[in-house]
Amino acid sequence: MNHFFAIEISGEARDSLARFADLWRTLAGSRSDIRWLEPSDYHVTVKFLGDTTRQDAMRLSQAAESIANHAAPFDIRQAPAGAFPSLTNPGVLWAGVAPNPKLKTLAASLETAAASVGFPAERRPYRPHITLARAGVRLALATPPIEPAFDTLVARQFVLMETVSAQFNATGARIRYNIVQVFPF
User: What was the pLDDT predicted at 1?
Assistant: First the structure.
């Protein structure tokens, strides 16, 4: 099961992102290869641990608690939408999160803690984003003519999440996450 540390997106920001995702879905047409996340699953990944057992992920618990105890709440602001690796070859469609020194420090601290207990280091630079969908077939896709708009969020905690068995609905595969542990600042 995949595990990761994340900041949840809730309230008006989640609703605003859902409206943006609906617009993008409309522009994408009836492409069945795009699996849209449910708004309840929106989050900003801070550190991805990969396919690991809950016990192995929990080895980081003490370090994560210490990191949280030394952190303070911070703002999360929007940035332009995009796709990984690109809009001409999309695998992940996302809403951007503006760079923030406190978020970057949190990500670096969790990266260091994870490496100290044997998790592989991330080689790519940290690019905060909110995943809205995953594309199975990588065909070029346009972004909506507007950017996602959400009020500034205040991050007051991060969580350890795990991916659980996918459920299916009328729009395709639904990825679902479970909170394993909460780390308040």
Answer: 87
